[in-house]
Specification:
Blueprint lengths: L7 E6 L2 E6 L3 E2 L2 H16 L5 E5 L5 E2 L1 H16 L3 E5 L3 H9 L2 H4 L1 E3 L2 H6 L3
Parallel strand pairs: 2-4, 3-5, 4-6, 6-7
Antiparallel strand pairs: 1-2
Helix pairs in contact: 1-2
């Protein structure tokens, strides 16, 4: 069985796994499920994951994508890891503010700032 094409670009540097999205719009339920499963597998590879999710290519997020992020956050915390978000478009960040998710997630302007923030 052929593996589905990844919707993510993943890199590891200095113990931090950085995830970037291939798609500009993360709206489709099937894609969100696939992305969530792929990120969960990355989290499960490490005892104490350091995960940075960059939204540099993303223009639109659905509420289902936000729900997936909350689940990912719980998974990282269950493994005593750390999660950072970075490069969020101002319009998307506004959704984080309205939903108060900016209080749940540690959000940085750039991936470099986020990487530097890991303990």
């Amino acid at each position: 069985m052929a593996q589905a094409e990844s919707r993510l670009r993943v890199s590891d540097r200095d113990g931090v796994t950085t995830v970037e999205f291939v798609d500009r719009n993360i709206l489709d339920e099937a894609n969100i499920q696939a992305i969530s499963e792929e990120i969960s597998a990355l989290i499960d590879r490490s005892e104490s994951p350091k995960l940075l999710i960059s939204f540099s290519n993303v223009d639109h997020l659905s509420s289902a994508a936000l729900g997936a992020l909350i689940t990912i956050n719980h998974r990282v915390r269950d493994r005593e890891g750390q999660l950072r978000l970075a490069n969020i478009d101002p319009q998307i960040y506004e959704v984080f503010v309205i939903t108060r998710l900016n209080k749940l997630f540690e959000i940085h302007d750039t991936a470099d700032e986020a990487t530097a923030s890991f303990a």
